[in-house]
Amino acid sequence: MPAPLRIGLAGLGTVGVGVIKIVQQHADMIAMRAGRPITITAVSARDATRDRGVDLSGFAWESDPVALARRDDVDVFVEVMGGHEGAAKDATEAALATGKDVVTANKALLAHYGQALADSAEAAGRTIRFEAAVAGGIPIIKALTEGLAGNAIRRVMGVMNGTCNYILTRMEDTGLPYDVVFEEARALGYLEADPNLDVGGIDASHKLSLLASIAFGTQVSFDAVEMEGIGAVSIDDIRRAGDMGYRIKLLGVAQMTGRGLEQRMTPCLVPCDSPLGQLSGGTNMVVVEGDAVGQIVLRGAGAGQGPTASAVMGDVIDLARGIRTPTFGVPAAHLTVPVAAHSAAPAAWYLRMRLVDKPGALAKIATKLGEAGVSINRMRQYGQSDGDAPVLIVTHKATRDDIQTALSSFKTTGVLAAEPVALRIEDV
Amino acid sequence: MPAPLRIGLAGLGTVGVGVIKIVQQHADMIAMRAGRPITITAVSARDATRDRGVDLSGFAWESDPVALARRDDVDVFVEVMGGHEGAAKDATEAALATGKDVVTANKALLAHYGQALADSAEAAGRTIRFEAAVAGGIPIIKALTEGLAGNAIRRVMGVMNGTCNYILTRMEDTGLPYDVVFEEARALGYLEADPNLDVGGIDASHKLSLLASIAFGTQVSFDAVEMEGIGAVSIDDIRRAGDMGYRIKLLGVAQMTGRGLEQRMTPCLVPCDSPLGQLSGGTNMVVVEGDAVGQIVLRGAGAGQGPTASAVMGDVIDLARGIRTPTFGVPAAHLTVPVAAHSAAPAAWYLRMRLVDKPGALAKIATKLGEAGVSINRMRQYGQSDGDAPVLIVTHKATRDDIQTALSSFKTTGVLAAEPVALRIEDV
Questions:
Q1: pLDDT band for position B97 (cuts 50, 70, 90)
Q2: B274 CA to chain A: closest CA distance, Å?
Q3: Is residue A243 part of a domain?
Q4: What CATH number corresponds to the domain at position A155?
């Protein structure tokens, strides 16, 4: 049997320990599948003394991940430390500079420095694999770059932050408002130290920007993601959307439009009976639309020790087999700089507003919509409990610009009792 | 740029034409992704004169697919003719014997001769890729052999015959009986020339046997699949199962049990709100359970020109990139001969029966179940329209042997008005 592939593992948190468990428990199975043994040579973490429940005695210890990355007895540098500056970035660069392939779960690092790192990898004849960085255990990077490589991709969509999906599902199930469920999630340890990474949509947008790059052959452009978190989603909207047959999801969408690459991570309505609409709790889902294959849906755990370590090991086993696809699917020099197109694709919209109790109020709103070129598909007016009339409108397809024009013009009518809510209905 | 990868394409039916379309329409995109151009050198089909709507003028024509497979100017032999004997087999063997890799959509050929062909491929230093043979455009072979390679697979399940799922869904939607919907499907061209390939479960079992091989590292053992078609599924059972919160699917299940490898392709009940239960129409779905990753669900079109050609091209592009994983995921010589275990895994069961209108009838049935060691989870007796009483029972987990013991003993009670129906409820 050929020589082992030797891992240097930086980071002994949940994911790193998961990687060690798989390597130790499945050594024979993995050697059979990979065609050679896979071993861990050296590890690195902040605290060398903590009991992590796995046997570390066979591994060399490096306190500095950069030193780990430079070791001569490491073939693949596995980075599961996290953080997009500092040690993670330095160590990844050091690994590439000294001729190692890199396997990483670090979405933030790649979202910010993906192009430079891919350039460095190719200059060294190496690659960076990052299946674990997007949608946990779901093999979506592999599906896009390899399995569906014969397709021009039309659109990639996904629910890729389990915490947000948990919060939205829990609000729907319990009727509790956002703030209460947010605190529940925090108490359960579901939130990052900076919760805005989750509920602000940043973490999911990191992932979306990576998917967009490999789907469309463009340089990663995280800064161009139109991003809106779930903090403003009200229990009212969850209920009203449900009445109309929709669920609200923090949905990432990337598509190439006539005006450029559109990347959005925003609360959207999706039909209750669609795969995305049926997704509850912390599970992730990615939907890919290709010109030949049509729609492919992948669903699975988006986080956690086992799923993330599974993704890391899939990448490591590929490298052991000699599979070395370019980092973003095509050579880094051929990745194009995308033109950012914000919400260019038209969509149906859900509009919720409260109108004052005056004759002709609804007619005024309808007139303004018509003037903005937005036509009404469905409209529902609810009983007036407090004098104001809750009104829901589902529009036919319209651009965001047209919707914003209409919303602005509503203000001149004097019939709005509160700021209206507009949410996109994604066609899934 | 390196030399092109040259395809010899055997079969110019729907899928073959789909492959030509992708190669012609996306030549630049594919060359970028594969790192080299992919061209078609020569083609083969029965009728050289028919207009297929694509330009064949640039390709050499071989009337004999074996001659095509042997050509010196072919690197990869793509077999989309179908049929598991005769020309398809001969040509595949000829391609391997003359040092070509093979990409095939031919599930029947691999289900019957997979081991011998994998042996031949490895003897020649080549591989056989068959993403298109299982679940159409869904990249499930790649997911299992590569993306999830760090997992010990617990179970693989799937709805992998779109025609059967169409028929079952249509029966539920319309209330029409099986025979009527079967004739509808035939008129719509959804059925194979031999419909038993579809409704008898043979086609889906071919696919299941391939998934079982790569999931568990075993030799393909199609003959060991426990197979039952959908011909006996009644509209009554579809309705009654629905009352209890289940849908009936022709579900393939492969799992390694303490007694050996269990492979089943049978009508099963699954919860309406599970991903499998929500699958309607001709779509396919495969569910994989791995020890690290948990449950991964993949969904997409299981047939058709674009999806199947997409899968073929994914394999071809991998070969162009130099990716040459062993045919069934591990070297052919290491595939083990599985011990076949028929329905070893216990399950809950759905039992439907009609009891004669006599006092104590239900008690007699319940007693017999208890004697067979089967306990009742839920029971429902319907109003008696014609003297006999329809009774539904959902059991707690029991083996098929115990259920069959119970069913046999029912006959001695004298209270059955008709043959009882027993369907497995798969835990999904």
A1: very high
A2: 9
A3: yes
A4: 3.30.360.10
**pLDDT at residue B343 is higher than 80:** no
- Distance from first CA to last CA of chain A, Å, rounded? 48
Is the pLDDT at B305 greater than 90, yes or no?
yes
Record: contact B142-A143, CB cut-off 8 A: yes
* Whether residues B108 and B183 fall in one domain: no
Q: Do A35 and B278 touch (CB under 8 A)?
A: no
Clarify whether residues B144 and B129 are in a common domain.
Answer: no
Is the pLDDT score of A384 beyond 80? no
Neighbours of B239 (CB within 10 A): 12
Whether B320 is covered by a domain: the verdict is no
Q: How far is B50 from chain A (nearest CA, A)?
A: 23
Cα–Cα–Cα angle for B271, A267, A222, rounded to 5 degrees? 115
CB–CB of B147 and A142 under 8 A?
A: yes
Question: Closest chain A residue to B313 measured between Cα atoms?
Answer: A150
* Residue B385: band (very low, low, confident or very high) from pLDDT cuts 50, 70, 90: low
pLDDT classification of B345: cutoffs 50, 70, 90:
confident
Does residue A128 sit at the B interface (CB-CB below 8 Å)? Answer: no
User: Residue A2 gets which letter from DSSP?
Assistant: P
pLDDT at B1: 72
Q: Find which of B153, B310, B323, B330 to mutate to test the A interface (most A CBs within 10 Å of its CB).
A: B310
Would you state the pLDDT for residue B344? Answer: 78
pLDDT at position A85 is 83
CATH number of the structural domain spanning residue B50: 3.40.50.720
- Report chain B residues whose CB lies below 8 A from the CB of A286: none
**Which of A137, A292, A310 lies nearest to residue B306, judging by beta carbons?**
A292
Window B:263-302, CB contacts with A under 8 Å: 273, 275, 278, 290-301
B53: left (phi over 0), alpha (psi -120 to 50) or beta: left
Mean pLDDT confidence for A337-354: 91
Q: Who among A149, A296, A299 is closest to B138 (CB)?
A: A296
> Taking phi first (over 0 means left), then psi (-120 to 50 degrees means alpha), and beta for anything else, what does residue B295 get?
beta
Q: Domain of B383?
A: 348-425
Mark yes or no for CB contact B294/A278 under 8 Å: no
- Alpha-carbon distance B238 to nearest alpha carbon in chain A (angstroms): 20
Total of domains in chain B: 3
Could you tell me the pLDDT band of residue A385, with boundaries at 50, 70 and 90? low
DSSP-assigned beta bridge partners for residue A104: A79
Please check whether residues B88 and B52 belong to one and the same domain.
Answer: yes
User: What pLDDT score does A383 carry?
Assistant: 77
What the block records as the tokens of A192 is 């990052």
Residue A249 has pLDDT above 70, yes or no: yes
Q: Establish, for the pair of chains A and B, how many residue pairs have beta carbons separated by less than 8 Å.
A: 193
Report the DSSP pairing between strands A246-257 and A260-271.
antiparallel
Catalytic residue among A89, A207, A249, A364: A207
The beta strand positions in B235-374, using DSSP E, are 246-257, 260-271, 283-290, 294-301, 348-355
The last residue of a domain, from among B282, B301, B320: B301
Three-state DSSP class for residue B301: strand
Cβ contact A250:A277 at 8 Å: no
Lowest mean pLDDT among A168-177, A411-420, B155-164, B207-216: A411-420
- Check whether A399 has a pLDDT greater than 80: yes
User: Does residue A113 form part of some domain?
Assistant: yes
* Residues A61, A97 within the same domain: yes
* Same domain (yes/no): A151, A287: yes
